[in-house]
Amino acid sequence: MSSISAAERVALLALIPKSEQGCSINWNASAQRWYVFRWLGTTYDPKRKRGVDRRESIGYIKDGQFHYSKRYLLQKQVNEANAPSAEQSSAKQTVQKATDAVSEFRQTTKVQYPMDIVLTVMLLASLAGYTGAVSIALYWKLHRKELENLFENFPDKDISHDTVNRIMRQIEPEEFSKLVQAMTELLVRQFEQRILNGDGQCVRASRHCDDQSGCYFFNVYDATNCLLLFHSLVDDKTNEIPAAYTALQALDIKGCMLTFDAMNTQKQTAELIVQRGAQYCLAVKENQPTLFKEVIYALNTSQQTQCCQNTDADHGRIEIRDVTVAPASLLSQSVLSEWTGLSKGCLVKVRLRTQSKRNYETEVKQSDDTRYFISSMPFKTEGVAERMCDVIRRHWSVENRLHWTLDTQYNQDRVQCKDKTYLQNRVSLNKLSLNFLQQGKIRAQETYKLKYSIKTLMQMCATPGDALELLHELFEKKY
């Protein structure tokens, strides 16, 4: 009976319900009937050290009639009851499509954990605060039943932390960064002018015995959207200046305002920003001595100034900012010729006076600090003093909303790691999940007037289904 003609096989397959697509048949001599099954693919068996075909039994054909397997019908009812919602399925497909940016580096015949599933679970785990290899493996184990309902071909065996660690160490950091950028682009909203902050961050616990400090990353943060747009590991033999130049070439910055600290106040950086159709606001300190002296003199002696004052009372302190803006044309021609876009720009002085007092303190602490900046924003811009005050204040978003949050919520500053590839990919995972959580926080505030902390949002994404619901809301812009 196993050897039948093609016409007879077609006739037998026609007996199978049309709802059961992709089925095959196999003759069982002892039971004298045709078994109907669906092929689910090949899974690597570490015990046999070879690939093993995975089949799902559907039923059988006997005496010209098809009969469902009772076990299959029961499992089908369970699956339908636990089936993911349309929103969860849509978000899962979007994430899996983005994971195509990471190429498969393992032997196909030995793959037990598909790359798209592993990366998707990593992202879902990171939204709940699990970003280490051990914690991701634990998340996989704790939520196995729900993950099996979300993924059609979810692996039968729990993943080990060693496997997660090995995958994280072997993925090319450039490809993981492309994954971060691809998913971040889905969240970017357009404004009249976006403010981008460039700054470096050190992972201090990654320091080795011979190193003076840990691994250093350069970040470009969109303060308007509250999104990390770009990050790269700074080479040990250099500093963040080349990394900043690379970031400016890689990003679409047209129409944006770029802010940097004094280290990146470089002539070639200012020239590239203007060439790319953007504006800059650069801190000026003693590393540019001639520029620094002329800026101070011009701001302290000029009568052509615009001023504004801003007062904040928060976090147990009072901050008073006095902003003075003068035309950059007051500088000497030799200086203006060296700084592209500055001739029509402006000079800025910010005096920050702070008063703070804790409940247990008897004395009021006071500080008085003055900082200087140059900007390609035209001095004749309406409300230039107020606008420059806002730009300079937002520069600290990269510290407050990115660096500080990564250290407190993800313990990034405590990651002890000798493998730089693993460290880069783990940092990328932290920043990708933080991008999603920040957007959830902002849009919940805009739509529902609800103020959530990042920690609260992590708790709200505790299960894979909840995390996918949040992603769907963000992808579909429903907030």
Mean pLDDT: 91
Which structural class should the secondary elements be placed in? alpha+beta
Question: Helicity, in percent?
Answer: 40-55%
What order do the SSEs take from the amino end to the carboxyl end, as H and E? HEEEEHHHHHHHEEEHEHEHEEHEEHHHHH
How is the largest sheet built, in terms of strand order? 7-6-5-8-9-13-12-11-10
**Low-confidence segments, ≥5 residues, pLDDT <50?**
none
Distance between the termini: 61 Å
The backbone outline, from C-alpha atoms, is elongated
| Biggest β-sheet description | 9 strands, mixed
Give the beta-strand count.
Answer: 13
**Number of helices, where a helix is a run of at least 4 consecutive DSSP H or I residues:** 17
Beta-strand percent range: 15-25%
Radius of gyration from CA coordinates: 29 Å
Provide a descriptive summary of the structure in words:
The protein has 479 residues and is of the alpha+beta class. Helix content is 41%, strand content 23%. The protein has 17 helices and 13 strands. The protein has helices spanning 6-13, 70-81, 86-98, 115-127, 133-142, 144-150, 161-170, 173-184, 240-250, 267-275, 289-301, 333-338, 384-394, 397-409, 420-448, 454-460, 464-475; strands at residues 23-28, 33-45, 50-62, 65-68, 195-203, 215-222, 227-233, 257-260, 279-284, 306-314, 317-327, 346-356, 365-375. A 9-stranded mixed sheet has the order 7-6-5-8-9-13-12-11-10, sandwiched between helices. A 4-stranded antiparallel sheet has the order 1-2-3-4.
Which features would summarize this protein structure in a list?
single chain; 479 residues; alpha+beta; nine-stranded mixed sheet; four-stranded antiparallel sheet; 17 helices; 13 strands
